[in-house]
Amino acid sequence: MGKRPRKPSGPRPWVRRGMDQLEGRNVVYEALTRGARPVTRILLDERTRPHPKVDRILEVASSQGVVIARAPREKLDDHTLTGVHNGIIAEAEPLPDWTVTSRLNAVFDSGEDPFFVLVDEVNYEHNLGAILRSAMGAGV
Questions:
Q1: Fewer CB near the terminus (10 Å): N or C of the chain?
Q2: Are 55 and 84 in contact (CB under 8 A)?
Q3: What is the pLDDT of residues 77-95, one digit of tens each?
Q4: pTM of the model
């Protein structure tokens, strides 16, 4: 008898359908503290050592009633979509869908002068941070 073919193994998102998967300590912390959308649950590496950022995440998440589960790092590795989860994956409500036209209309309606920075396919929070710092220096 021959071997059975293996199923292709790829990332399997941890989040439920219709939700967004957030990965990494900085991303999860910002989602929790900004309040732009609710974070509903968090999956944390069970071997995570005490760390100030992790402690803040757990504190804010607990105060918001977010469900926190611990799992082996291998489980997080199986579910990562970016490959960089830093020991934490969160499930969050999706952000509102904006079109360029609707966003521009909202800015013009508020009486502001628009100045946008459009970014696509940024998967690492430090790259986005560098873009935002540069934009801020330019007056965005």
A1: N
A2: no
A3: 999 999 899 999 999 999 8
A4: 0.67
